[in-house]
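Memo to structure team: turn this sequence into structure tokens by end of day. - J.P.
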Amino acid sequence: MLRPGYKPPSRYEIGGSLLDAVWTKTKMESVTSLCLGAVSLSLDGWSNVNNHPVVATSIITEDGRSILIDTVDTTGHSHTAEYLMKLVDESIVKIQEQHNCKVGSVVTDNTGNVKRMRMLTYRDQQSHFRVIC
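Reply from structure team:
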């Protein structure tokens, strides 16, 4: 039984300051626990609860941990190969700056736009990773 004087946090506190504090703590733990090794970038798209298109990027570490990097509301953007390649490039920069990791591969599904993105990657002379579907 709870203490009679205990007042649980409100849903606004849970969804606000407490959630922000836990997010910050978890983010810092994930940043400090990553080594300087290579990671795989995972890219996937779907619709959120409001039926808006979303693309999520996460990394998979050498020991199998998965860490969410970003979710992007892509409303107003077609998921073309060029646009997806731009998201991949931005994610790689973010991973290198925030986590000090090198992206060794990109893992995604095998839709037509991703197949085209893979072809663009192979043609790009500056690309140092493989796209795996």
